[in-house]
Design goal:
Layout: H1 3-22, H2 25-30, E1 75-77, E2 96-98, E3 112-116, E4 122-124, H3 126-131, E5 135-142, H4 157-161, E6 164-173, H5 174-181, E7 189-194, E8 201-205, H6 206-209, E9 214-219, E10 222-223, E11 233-235, E12 248-254, E13 269-270, E14 276-277, E15 286-291, E16 301-310, E17 316-322, E18 330-331, E19 333-334, E20 344-352, E21 357-365, H7 374-381, E22 395-397, E23 403-405
Parallel strand pairs: 3-12
Antiparallel strand pairs: 1-2, 3-4, 5-6, 6-9, 7-8, 7-12, 9-10, 9-11, 13-14, 15-16, 16-20, 17-18, 17-21, 19-20, 21-22, 22-23
This protein binds ligand MTE and molybdenum atom.
Length: about 400
């Protein structure tokens, strides 16, 4: 911090102390050397919350649930990205995307069948699945409809790109289970089916199945939540979220893809010339500034710009940030560790001069790919497609410090 920024910071802190004192006796007591009420008697009993929850003062940090959400059909909730720090999403705030509601599956009754082009068809219990050698990895999961091409009208970072979350996943390599069944020479695809009312079904190329694909039963150390596919899901690092089939009950090894609803009428991208891209698996590099971001308010002087970047192709190499509407870009610092196919936190110190401006970030991944502007992306893809919008998200900052969607 420069001397000037430091002095401004201290002046503002002094003003904040004044504000606290003015807000009543309790805040006055809480300001040292005062003694607040919560120091005058023992607190709640240890173990009074067998499963811990956040402070009641954080009750507003919740999933972003659209108004008028139609249940049991095709619905989603979003992660409140602007309210979180670091790179891991708490399990209770992981985004949800369901095509037929959330089944209530008894793991004792659940079975995984592996059949088709295999030497030894298998029917596994959850106990069987957990006997295989396990692995844990931190990966992001993103819906390819995040945000969609016409839905860039939202207000917050969560409204715009909240269909992404990141967690540590534990399970068994899909390759290990497939080898147990024994792949026949013609095995080129694995068609995965979920045990929900939508029977979500997607085809996975065999190369991915034998590479980093996982069968996951735990998330951030505890068993998967029902919303995330309890008791078992497929997890395909870097691929569009739709393919990570939840509530997994069947793997049909085949020579051809299933050409299911989710890979014909949905999850394809209509191009300007009327043809459609199909099997667009990889989530391309993307980033968003989460603070300051839409509906937040900043004051002149020092403001840290921070956000998240990710790429389905591996690691993030760098993130550039503009604070002058794209005239110039500066290199942000990346928080270590920068992990393969995980969220990466970036930061840039910034002194805001109080003038109206636009800020934005753009990610560059280890392949050299640069996150495109919305104009550059739509020049190639047109506006007919819905999935795989990874364009730069600009935030407009008004002279009063109010931050708003730069697209609107
Ligand atoms: N069985 C099943 N698997 C599913 C879905 C579904 O509706 N049913 N939704 C898919 C979609 S579109 C996405 S983006 C991810 C979302 O995973 P999450 O809810 O754990 O975030 O799950 C995928 N797997
Ligand atoms: Mo999705």
């Amino acid at each position: 911090m420069t001397m000037h920024a430091r002095r401004r910071f201290l002046v503002r802190s002094a003003a904040a102390v004044g504000a606290v004192a003015a807000s009543g006796a309790r805040a006055e007591q809480a300001t040292p050397p005062g003694i607040p009420d919560w120091m005058k008697a023992p607190g709640a009993d240890t173990g009074s919350q067998p499963y811990g929850t956040p402070s009641r003062f954080e009750a507003g940090i919740i999933r972003n649930i659209p108004k008028g959400l139609k249940q049991y059909t095709s619905a989603s909730t979003r992660t409140p990205l602007q309210d979180l720090d670091g790179i891991l999403t708490p399990n209770g705030l992981f985004y949800e995307r369901h095509h037929g509601g959330i089944p209530d599956i008894d793991p004792a009754q659940h079975r995984l069948m592996i059949h088709g082009l295999v030497e030894r068809p298998l029917v596994l219990t959850m106990e069987d699945v957990r006997r295989f050698p396990s692995e844990s990895h931190i990966y992001f999961l993103e819906c390819s409809g995040n945000p969609g091409f016409e839905a860039i009208k939202g207000k917050t970072a969560s409204d715009l790109v909240g269909l992404i979350s990141c967690a540590e996943w534990t399970g068994v390599r899909l390759a290990t289970v497939l080898r147990e069944a024994g792949l026949k020479p013609d095995a080129k695809w694995v068609v995965a089916e979920g045990a929900d009312a939508a029977a979500m079904t997607r085809s996975i190329p065999i190369a991915k199945c034998l590479d980093d694909a996982l069968l996951v039963y735990s998330q951030n150390g505890e068993r998967l939540r029902p919303q995330q596919g309890y008791p078992l899901r497929v997890f395909l690092p870097g691929f569009e979220g739709n393919m990570s089939v939840k509530w997994l009950r069947r793997l049909n090894v085949a020579a051809e893809p299933g050409y299911t609803r989710e890979e014909t009428s949905k999850y394809t991208d209509l191009m300007p010339d009327g043809t459609a891209r199909q099997f667009t698996f990889v989530m391309e590099a993307k980033s968003i500034i989460t603070r300051p971001s839409g509906t937040q308010r900043i004051t002149p002087g020092f403001n840290e710009i921070t956000g998240l970047a990710w790429t389905g192709r591996g690691r993030i190499r760098g993130v550039q940030v503009t604070t002058d509407g794209g005239k110039s870009w500066r290199e942000a610092a990346l928080q270590e560790p920068v992990l393969n196919r995980a969220l990466t936190r970036f930061r840039l110190p910034w002194t805001w001069d109080g003038q109206q401006t636009t800020i934005a970030s753009r990610a560059i991944d280890e392949t050299g790919y640069v996150q495109p502007s919305f104009e550059d992306l739509t020049a190639v893809r047109g506006l007919k497609s819905f999935y795989h919008n990874n364009a730069v998200v600009p935030w407009r900052i008004a002279a009063d410090g109010e931050v708003a969607n730069g697209y609107a």
